[in-house]
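Batch job 17 of 40 flagged for manual review because the log was empty.
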Amino acid sequence: MRVPLSWLAEYVELVPGTTPEDVHAALVRVGLEEEDVHTFELEGPIVVGEVLEFVEEPQSNGKTIRWCQVRVAPEGAAAADGGDAVHGIVCGARNFFVGDKVVVTLPGAVLPGPFPIAARTTYGHVSDGMIASARELGLGDDHEGILRLSTLGIDAPVGTDAIALLGLDDAAIEINVTPDRGYAFSIRGVAREYAHATGARFRDPVEQTSTATASVGAGSGDVFPVEIRDEAPIRGRVGSAVFATRIVRGVDPARPTPAWMVARLKLAGIRSLSVLVDITNYVMLELGQPIHGYDLDRLQGGIVVRRATPGEKLTTLDGKERALHPEDLLITDDRGAIGIAGVMGGADTEMSDATRNVLIEAANFDPVSIARSARRHKLPSEASKRFERGVDPQIAAASATRVAQLMVDLAGGTPDAGGSLIHEAPEREPIALPIGFVSELIGVEYTDEEVHDALAEIGGAITRSDVGFEVVPPSWRPDLTGKAELAEEVARLAGYHRIPSVLPVAPPGRGLTRSQRIRRRVADTLAAAGSTEVLSFPFATETENARFGSADGGPVASVRLANALDAGTALMRRSLLPGLIAAAKRNRSRGLVDVSLFELGTVFLPETGRAYGTSELPVGDARPSDADLATLQAGIPPQPRHVGVLIVGDVVTKEPQQPPVAAGIVDAIDAVRQVGLAAGADIEIVQGSHQALHPGRTAELRVAGRTVGYAGELLPTLAEEADLPRVVAVAELDLDAVIDLAEPGVEAGAIGAYPAATQDLSLVVAADVPAATVAAAVRDGAGELLEHLHLVDDYRGPGVPDGSKSLTFALRFRADDRTLTAAEASGAKLAGAGVAAERTGAAIRE
């Protein structure tokens, strides 16, 4: 919300010399966030000038300029820039005449941009200044011609300071209005908040308007017919409970909007359109009540407020035809819809240059209904922004009267007694506020008088009893619905500085769960190993879910978003790998060619053919029951946490005497082992297959016999599709499953005190037998003396039969109570070889 200071000063006392920064500081004290300061960015001398004469001079480029003589100071006086009273100025515009009063920027002036003005030679003349257009002054977008003051209804003496005359010396502060404080979307609301912060006297513009009602209440006419017919309220809330209309006849839409109003609207961020539209916008900003004006002569019959019917359409003011939804609240006449209530009016009844009689509408609409319609039709407007936050239901009649008053004063209209007022807004219920509740909640000792005075200051009607207060919140504060909100108001007005900064003491016996500790340890381990954690969007395409969401390529089910940000990625992901691949592609496109990434995040794995969700959500005013929570949980598809790793490029960079080492499946498996180490899980790595991974270079990952993920190298075709090198190492595990299957409380073994005996074992086995299977057999056969086993060689060539391979294992034996003999170590080794021979057909290589 932008608030011009001159406008603010009409309703609250500003001390002379108050700066925008002072106003911002005061509003921050009562919880309104400062955003910016806006000015017209003008510097004088900029004065009123009179065109004395001009000569039109055609140029060789086809353009005709005017060499003008312009009086910029009274006869006999010096100009504001110290020069002569008459300046010669070159002007390209042709929409002015001799005798016109114009705005002249003299040498030394600065226009927005910044654009400094100086005397310069152009088209064979020395142009001593510039005649300005409305756009050049920052007043509007009109740049087709210069600004003639007569079009604004201004006739000021030559030499008058035009900056002050046009209201261009004003400034506006901008504040951020949170959704619960919609009343601050008005000069009225901000003025009240400034009064709360400084103690300055507040003058309510609604009360001032009410006292002026008699001046616009005379006339003749019938009551304008209005009917509210809401047969399908949303959650039991009727779409409109307040609807006020006024009629003004004989307006002149061609009259200029006064310069002070144009300047204020501009500073407030609204473009001046016409005097009738400007008045409705002005009152909306002033009081916070959105106003809509209709061309009365284009209405057919009275107004009916109702919901849309199936198939109904409306062409809105922006010229677009919109298909209406049965939830949309409409303003209609005898021929049908003429506007979406609280959002945007229809083109058929809008005020135009031909309008002579105006029907003014000031209504109050249900915030939920307006918010849904604005989002449904993608039509955010200044009106919907206020309605969806809540508008004071008590100011509709005063707002309509204020608009009528301005149309009489500025557009030459005549007020008509014809109009209507429907006011069925329910009375606010009192809120019980026990004694001591505010102090207990906020942590500051407030006296009863402080509580009473703060709530009275915000406009509450207070009744005191022995047990506390009963407070009826003011009509403009729909956010005050309970005692906690009242306590917050006391804290806000008494000053947030009184609330001490005290760190809470953590209750004993609390902390991270086992799962949370392990997840953090996994992330720390991968980061310490050189990987970078990334967070990718959880959205995926159908192709990505089909490709990575299933190992065997079978059909998969996906969670589809009802309102996706991008239609191409409208599904929730089944795998982390697409996001990691996209991140790697983005990094490589920016020159980072050696990348190791990991992500911890949820994936979404609905069961095929099962419907999820619940038909009824619990009310949010109390904690749901265990049964309700169980029902909600059952309506959510499984969302396990996965960990994904992607390594591409060189894991060892090229250096002197050191060749580069490219990433491959070994690095993906190393990352898997790090995850297993951090989680305390024994991850078994066996030969596997996955439709998105390279055949023969894919490992299936198991814990306690259950498959928990895959590791390997991405299919080269998929790598090429993502503009990545041919070899991309990836791994993905169901981290929740790994944690569940890991043995909690695994203890480290004792450090051996006796020497170890080391031996090698070479076994010849069929080439299709996985080395891990052979290693497991050797480990089982060697028994407790085997401390460590490691595969050191996989040989295939001369000396080994065709279709076979030679696997060499390094074995380390150790006993806890003695030094092993060579015979004991050899016996354990041969026992391991024997079991390997039984299970896999392995033979000791001679």
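Reviewer: the log was empty due to a logging misconfiguration, but the result itself is present. The two ends are 88 Å apart (CA to CA). Unflagging and moving on to job 18.
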